[in-house]
Amino acid sequence: MDRAETNKRFILKYIRALNEAEDKLNILSQYTSDSKLIERIAFLEKAFPRHQVMVDEVTAEASRVIVRARFIGKNLGPANGMRPTGKKVEVPFAMGYEIQQGRIISHWLITDQLALLVQSVV
Prior knowledge:
alpha+beta; Nuclear Transport Factor 2, Chain: A; four-stranded antiparallel beta sheet; globular
């Protein structure tokens, strides 16, 4: 198996582990040293406890993996100064990961912020 395929499988394992975890923050150290990714997941877990990521597509080349997916959760906690609404959201996003020695070392995210806002509030 080549490096890209190994990294692709690693990211799918990581996402599956997060989806199945009772405490998402507790398992992150097994997969990443990227403090910004840990902060992002902590924020999401507070605002959308037990959220899920549904993968639609994964592309990999060498040390980089790109995931196109949907974030699904219910807004049960505060987010950016807004009170919880109890509304369910399903928001498309793309996230890129860089993997070195079996760990996520950096990431980037593109998401539909307007869709998240509209679904959370309306």
